Amino acid sequence: MSTALAGPEPAVFAALADPTRWRLLGMLGQQGAGTATTLAAKLPVSRPAVIKHLGVLDRAGLVTRARNGREVRYQVQPARLDEAARQIAAVAAAWDRRLAALKALAEDDRK
Amino acid sequence: MTVQTDRIERDVLIAAPVERVWELITSAEHMGRWLGDAGAEIDLRPGGKLSLSWREHGTHYGRVEAVEPPHRFVYRWLAEIDAQEEPTPANSTLTEFMLTAEGDGTRVAVAESGFDGLDVDPASRGATFASHTRGWTAELDELLGYAAGTPAGR
What we know:
Mean pLDDT of chain B: 77
Largest sheet of chain B: 7 strands, antiparallel
Mean pLDDT of chain A: 82
Distance between the termini of chain A: 29 Å
CATH class of chain B: Alpha Beta
Order of helices and strands of chain A: HHEHHEEH
Order of helices and strands of chain B: EHHEEEEEEH
CATH topology of chain B: Alpha-D-Glucose-1,6-Bisphosphate, Chain A, domain 4
CATH class of chain A: Mainly Alpha
Structural class of chain A: alpha+beta
Largest interface: A-B, 50 and 61 residues
Strand content of chain B: 35-45%
CATH superfamily of chain A: Winged helix-like DNA-binding domain superfamily/Winged helix DNA-binding domain
Largest sheet of chain A: 3 strands, antiparallel
Distance between the termini of chain B: 22 Å
CATH topology of chain A: Arc Repressor Mutant, subunit A
Number of strands of chain A: 3
Number of helices of chain A: 5
Oligomer: heterodimer
Number of strands of chain B: 7
Radius of gyration of chain B: 17 Å
Strand content of chain A: 5-15%
Low-confidence stretches of chain A: 1-8
Number of helices of chain B: 3
Helix content of chain A: 55-70%
Number of domains of chain B: 1
């Protein structure tokens, strides 16, 4: 398996490692799309802060942005999130396999 | 809610004494069988060199960080296959093994961390994952599961 250290996407993981950005993703997922203004109205952070967080998510490929008149609308980019989840799962699964092999080796040797 | 993508933790209970498991975890002969599948080399002391090979995809090089027999063993390994530079938080992750006696057996806990700090060119890693149609909320749940320390199959 190619998961000895199937490199997780660094920018994606760093982008996900923040509770506000996580909430933003959740809200965008529920609503389908959103603007910095509508998102900020539902969060205990300012609009400029929301824009900054959306920028991080955008650079990580986790959301896409589209200008709609004077507003910029953001949407979740599921493929990228999916990839990140798969990579974490792959690393965890690799450790499960290795620990199972270690267990078999250790317990086999005792016989 | 905070999502933990930086660290992965797994553990297993093995019906063998701690000293025996320590030997399997820290000797090149055994590491090359259960951790890699095509051999390993290790200079078992802090700062010592380490390499682990897999038939299918090459060798990961690394460095031993801590050796505290028979309970704690820590190393860094480079995220990029076959790369041989000095491991740093930007190009490698940290793997820590903790062994504790449990009844007649040994609990082995492994934690691999430092994924958030990796600064490796994605294109160089050779791992590509096709996207599929599963809803993104399922992926969030999956990530949250890992964050909560209750991954599937535990």
